[in-house]
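pinging the channel bc i need a second pair of eyes. not urgent but kinda urgent?? the chain im working w is below, pasted from the shared doc
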Amino acid sequence: MIAVSAVTLALAGAVLALIVGGAGWALYVGLTTRAAARAAGEGAARDAAVLAQAPAQAAIVRADGRIDLPRRVIDWLGLSVEPRYLTDLTRHDEGLVPADAEALAQDVAAAQRAGRPFQMAVQARGSARKLMITGARAPEAALAPGGVVLWFADATESEDVIARLAADRAEATAAFDALSGLIEAAPMPMWYRDDDMALAMVNSAYVAAVEARDARDAIDRALELVEGSGMGGPLANAAIARDTDQPQMMAVPATIGGARRMLRIHDVPLPGGGVAGYAVDIEDLEQARGGIKRFGEAQRAMLDRLSAGVAQFSADRSLTFCNQPFRRIFAMKDEWLRDRPEFDRVLERMREAGRVPEVRDFPTWKAERREWFVSTEGGEEEQWHLSGGVHLRVVAQPLPDGGLLTIFEDRTEQVQLASARDTLLRVRTATFDNLYEALGVFAADGRLQIWNQKFRLLWGFDEALLNTHPRIDALAKAAADRLENPQRAGAMGDLIRSATVDRVQRGGRFVFADGRHFEFAAVPLPDGNALFTMIDVTASRRVERALTDRNEALEAADQVKTAFVATMSYELRTPLTSIKGFAEMLHAGYAGELSESGTAYAEAILASVERLSVLVDDVLDLTQDDAAGRRAAVDLELLAGAAVETVAHAARARGVELAVDVLGSAGSVAGDPERLREAVEHLLRHAIDGTRTGGRVLLHIDGTAKAARIVVSDDGEGMTADAAARAFDRFAQTRIARGSERALGLGLPLAKRFVEAHGGTIALVSEPGHGTLVTIELPRG
């Protein structure tokens, strides 16, 4: 019993030991696990904290549309409620813009189905923040089978930087384009060489100078602007500029456009490498310098021929030029002037010759004249009264280079001329009195100042009345009885007031009681007065009336003739219709089968009837009042096709080539399609008739925004100048180049009538042996 107990105790102790050991091990494992869990938790918290502050935040969209969105992204989107599904990213007036939300849903669906990654930029409503979303299918470790991982990143600053860089790039591109355009538009050749001195860029002026096809051709062929661009030439000059980093310049000859020119070549090293160059044509500059020199010589030669004395002083006040009158006025010898005396010495020599005014203090007077060089008034003018009755007008003009130009005009003769003034006045009065016209000069206050005898006798004025210098109103009252209509006398006062006050020239016509006609006019004079003139036009008035009566008679006769032609044309239609009908019946065999010659005769009758019908229609068109017809939009290209189709048979029959050239600018005009087509047909028929076999007729149509132009030209025999002048006359005959007579018919007159009825113009130019050209211009409106 005791033994069993011992064994049992031993077993119990062993079991207890195992239990204690197992508990210790479990305690150890538990403590180890808890430490590991604590470390893992701290790591997870640390990772969560880092992830929360990361520039990109991850969200998971599950297969059923649920979304796990970080709080930070919720704040970025401005959502007040945490979204559960992808569709909750936009609601009411918060969250994503609806268009962005729809595009995001489509990209997420595509990533779920095909695993296609995507990237897009979105923006929350009511916020300036820009978000960049990068999406891809979620990995298996994300515990979201069929889901999509969305990475949200705040791209506001980067977008701003991108926008700023884009703006800078656009500005730089615009500046580069402007610079390139400036270089391209420069009138002088410009180029750029790389570090190897090879041409890399040239402008249009360079291309034109070297006679290349384009810039690429000039670069590929290495066409140099100047011959001999090797060692010591312009190419070496560019290399020196590159190596020394200093601009270089040299003048070299070159052949441009077949002419020898002198060029000044500039080579400028660029900071980024390479050398820019440009060439300045100094040929014109040299010629201009030569021209200026020749101009100066011509000017001095001209000044030598002036009656006034001229002296020019340089900035150092030395005499550089004086003409012959100056030497003569001041008695100066050439030997003394060759030393280029100074301004003060010249004044002293003038004083010695007695050619300056008498003054008490000559040094002070001379110092005052030295101020002429620096005068700010733009010039000085003085009157010098010298002994012996000599009077000089002196003008001193400072020059831009600091010099002085002086002019000495001898006005002594003007005093003598003043004494002859009375004689000239008497001569003027005698001339005034003997003019054929009746003349009177009125002052600004309307008073008569000067008159001639024709004026007094014509109106029958009393000499005593005129000597009182009466006003125009009093003269008009006294002259009223002389006129057929006395009330017309008041027009004299109106004319004088218009000429003196308004400074406007006006005229009219008076009819005297005795039947005489006078044209009158009031002309403003430079001194403010008015000249009233009258001339007898009775004879010309009678001739004018006779011509008017004759013209009216001619117009009446023309109307009678037109009416007669129109009536005859209508009357001719009936027999023509009968002739045509019977001829067609004969030709068709209704009266029995015709022989071959009979058929030919019937066809000739039909052709003649057709031609006569056309002529009758043309005559009717020419006599009708309505030449414009109805108005519609007329497509000129279709009109040209219709006209050409009508005359094509005639052109083929004569063996004439008919060409058509309708440009895109032809467009359309407003008018009567039939009348305009007939006008073009008439011109084409006239051109075909006047062209030899094998010749060519061209119909060309173009236009501008304001008008369309139709041109018909041929290389036929042309017309004489007299025939061309009468080409548009009705029923005119013209002589073509070889001297035979040919009837123009009514084609050209009808074309002119139709064109002018549409507000257009028509012109014909022809030269014997060189063809004819007719131009029509039609307004668009």
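so The longest helix spans residues 2-53. and DSSP finds 24 helices and 31 strands in the chain. — does that match what u expected or am i reading it wrong
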